[in-house]
User: What shape does this take?
Amino acid sequence: MKSCFEGNGVITYKNTKVGVLFQDKAPLNVVFRNMTGIDNALGLSVGAGHNEDTEYNDNTCELHDSRIYGESPIPDCPQDGEGGYCFKDLPKCGFHSSFSQWNSRKIHPRIKSGKPMHTSHSFGSWGVRALFNNNEFINFYPKTAMGAQ
Assistant: This one.
């Protein structure tokens, strides 16, 4: 039986980076189901960090039955940027590409890194498949209401 991690039913809203991301030492199968990403800059991502023991096994990263919303009615810069969040210049991609890498960041880093959590921290591994099924992308336009891509 393959080792597995499954995330189910998580809702992310107005994140300036990736709303949901799996890294660290991944099991052989990483599955996200029924996820909802609303108005996030980098959206959802299914990734896996492997090592020499699992790199060439039958590994998969999966996203199923999920909804990804590009823009919500709540503005990206309420109150004209005063007293709250404002990420009017950030492009929105909704879904951050799946990946598999040799070594990844720990889920709870102990030291600061020069690279953001969602970027690769080592070279890629080869034995992974990405599977996507029944996912919807809703309210994506060429430009956001604030003029970002």
User: Anything to note?
Assistant: The mean pLDDT is 77.
